[in-house]
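User: quick one, fold this
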Amino acid sequence: MAAVTAKDAEAVGTLLREGADPRTPGPDGLPVLCTALAGFDHESAGALTDGGADPDHELPDGTTPLLRAVDLGSPALVEAVLGDDPRTRLTEGGRERLLDLARHWIEAGEEEELRRRTGASGPARRRLVTENDTDVEEITLGGLTVRAGHTGILTWLEWRFGIPAPVADLVARAVAHADALHANWAQARFVLGERQGPQVWNELTALRQHPDPVHRLFLADVVWSRNFLTWFNHRQDVAEDADFLASWARDEPDGMVLARVLDVYFDQEHPDQEAIGLRHAGHPDPRVRSEVPCLLRQGSPPTEVATDALLALSRDPDPDVRRSVAGAMAGPGLTPRFREALLTLIRDTDAQVRAGAAVSLGNSDDRTAAVADALAALLDEQDQDQLLRLEIVYALARRDDPRTEYAWQRVGELPPGFGEMPQQEDHRILAYWNYRWRHRPTEPHGPSI
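Assistant:
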């Protein structure tokens, strides 16, 4: 109970594995799963459900934890507690009750439903929260709080219950938010990315001609989702997507949409990528120009015309474009022309451009003194990012540069929980300890490889 109250999902999982009862009651006598739900803690709720907590357990008020999750409007909570095979686990009446509740919130509107339930007349407090890498509004009124993700919840429940919602309905649910990071958009994108068949594809591709750019942006997102999912389910129905994107990239008029199309297109293997990149290298929208460098860097080494275009973009007035060029110039076999461009970018007025150039130079095989000196020169910048200093440690250690120790001192103490893996497994930290091992083998040192 203490771990759930503290929203410490890792501790919850550990305690469950050690034998803690997932049905443990909270102070109110309800299962501790309800405490996690009330705190919008989807990670602890998921750990409890995976550990044996029953999302279908009938509570004294006639609800269930799963029904409460739907009521709260958090797609992440519903995903966490929906459990295995809900299509067959739940009765038809149970499934309809969940769907009807989600539809009720959508039709009534979150703020209006809160007013009906609480009788409150004052202004509602709204804030944007992030869950599972998506955004959703949180609304508080009259002492009650819900999240405005009921549309995404309906989409998810229909999918898990085997109910194929019309493509047009799913599109309408997504574009109502005009935000590719919104949870309701993300759920529709995922479901349509999973849907297969020529009829679905024909209805989707028709969006390419929609007059509203938000509809076209959503289509690009769905195509990304279709192809991303092929890494997991080896789909065979996406073979023509690259041709579709190449054709679309030639005539999309909106800069925001075109930038997303090019971003999705970059992930495809297609022979026209350089030609399309060159076509848009002088586009007036910097968001489009920022997507061009990756398309031009497909060849190894790149062609002369692609090289010239990349060098021109390295002098672009927009820092995002220059940052993109700095990243695209990375890779084995750094050419002399790219090295000179990166040595210029590492002195750029924009800190993120300098950082991108430093990472590219540091990861290259170039061992010239000019590169090492340029990297070391960044160490004493007062506003330098700690992670960039760690990248410089890596670059200098790989080059056996005697300034590696000074660079390590400039990194300072890394924050608790740094990275997503133990620090001793971070390749940059390993590079430093290996440098120590090579140069001072008799002194205490960290792990080596």
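User: anything notable?
Assistant: DSSP finds 26 helices and three strands in the chain.
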